Amino acid sequence: MRVLIIFKDSVATERMAICYLSAALKKAGNEVRLWIMRVNPEEQLHEYMEEFKPDIVSFSAMTGEHLPLLELNEELKSRYEFFSVWGGPHATFAPELINEDVVDAQCTGEGDAVFPELCRRIEHGEEYWLTPTFNVSYGGEVFRNELADLIPTLEALEFPDREILYEADPRLSQLGTKYFMAARGCPYKCSYCFNVKYNESYKGKGKIIRSRTPRQVIDEIKWVKDRYPLDHVSFLDDLFILKPKGWLLEFADLFTKEIGLRWSCTVRANVTNIGGEFVLGELRKSGLSWVWMGVECGDEEISNQVLDRSHTNEEITEAVRLFQKYEINVIALNIMGLPVPNPLEIDLKTLDFNIMLRPAMMKTSLMYPYPGSPIETYARLHGYIDSRPEYLETHSRKSIMKMPSEKERRQVENLMRLSGVVVAFPFLRRHTMFLISLPLGRLYHFIFYLWYGYSFKFRFTKMTAKGMRHELPYFFKLFVRMMAKS
């Protein structure tokens, strides 16, 4: 089968799910091409439709991205014949998507095995509308099929097909930071995260947490390093530190001997449970330079009762101090604009907690109660969102929550944009209420993106002079695109 994959935008981050799906489809004998809506010219899309003549056009969308992609799907359907397949986070958690006239099939879970199976059934004229994990519109009826079992081991998967991504967006191949996945799955139940619903859906259908072997991960990094610029390795695992016994030490040893670069990953405040300071010290020796760690909310009661974080502020503080002891930078992730009666008051507590923590950077976003998440149910039940909220592509533009007043909405949104700078320069704290009350949202957005871009490329990944020549033009254009999007 000929499969054309389309997604909305590449924003300096490789979409590894696309790469894994392409590898699985190609392994099964299918031809695959990729077109990126905000990157590739429209005439190239029509060349693909007319010359490649895809049997299947697959749209991958996060919530918010699905709206322009649905419009594109409708336009293409009016001109060409193809079978429309939808996947990605929005398709997984928005069951009503299959009701759209232009959507033929909707993947509601892990796609590595089932997407090639759907292609095989279509090619051989079998009952493709009964393919597990897919909702399929057929003969005027919608078939909602049960989820297939999870792939039992990630060792069976091919290396992700980065080449298809780099062909569509060659600039990504030249960036020094490349992204990798060593595992899938997370057992925690944070109310704003997709994992809660995902884990419930897959209960009894296999192990949620699955890891590749350290050897596989190192071999993939070496493959990339031999072919493309690489100066920083970033892991996209839901929770990198959650690995089988002995995995992290084996990985650290191999990484030190065979890769020798700086790297970063995701952690949780219970980091001390991974084997104590000895393991953390070995990870630091291997090049671990910074970590992403969820702080999310400085009010402990709201953090546990609304966000279901199951943390104390003391645990978070101890974890941050441990990383600081080993000179590992902490990027503290935080969410503002929560579904609470006093959002600004809670957000100021979060700001003050981060000032006390002194992370290398405070990263903020606005709460988006995405479809299927427990926080969506909570926000809807307590009247903080309407039945059909306007989900945007970015969660740094505006809140979709009902606020006590429009003034407080502006203050919350401005605080989200300025918090990172205030934590870096704490003397600004006494001026914060005045600053966030000003109607300077666009200026604050400029500061927001500029500060994060500077921090990542110069403070953390430490871009070299050679890297500047390759990357600064790309990131300048990206900066302009993000400002336009916001």
* Shape field: globular
The tally of strands reads 15
Estimated helix fraction: 40-55%
Measured between the Cα atoms of the first and last residue, the distance is 38 Å
Largest sheet: 7 strands, mixed
> Which parts are unreliable, with pLDDT below 50 for 5 consecutive residues or more?
none
Number of helices: 19
The computed structural class is: alpha/beta
The proportion of strand residues reads: 15-25%
Q: Can you say what the CATH homologous superfamily of the largest domain is?
A: Aldolase class I
Q: In the CATH hierarchy, what is the class of the largest domain?
A: Alpha Beta
Mean pLDDT: 92
CATH architecture label name of the largest domain: Alpha-Beta Barrel
- Based on CA atoms alone, the radius of gyration comes out at 23 Å
> What do we call the CATH topology of the largest domain?
TIM Barrel
Strand order of the largest sheet: 2-1-3-4-5-6-7
How many structural domains in the coordinates?
2
Note down, in words, how this protein is organized.
It is built from 19 helices and 15 strands. Strands 2-1-3-4-5-6-7 form a seven-stranded mixed sheet, sandwiched between helices. Strands 8-11-12-13-14-15 form a six-stranded parallel sheet, with helices on both faces. A two-stranded antiparallel sheet has the order 9-10. The protein is globular, with a radius of gyration of 23 Å. The two termini are 38 Å apart. The chain has two domains: 2-144, Cobalamin-binding domain (Rossmann fold, 3-Layer(aba) Sandwich); 175-485, Aldolase class I (TIM Barrel). The mean pLDDT is 92. It has helices spanning 16-27, 42-52, 66-77, 89-93, 114-123, 162-168, 170-174, 195-201, 214-227, 247-258, 277-286, 300-305, 313-325, 343-357, 374-381, 406-424, 432-436, 441-460, 465-485, and strands at 2-7, 31-36, 56-60, 83-87, 105-107, 134-138, 141-144, 177-180, 183-184, 210-211, 232-235, 262-267, 288-296, 329-336, 361-366. A hairpin with a 2-residue loop joins strand 6 (134-138) and strand 7 (141-144). It has 486 residues and is an alpha/beta fold.
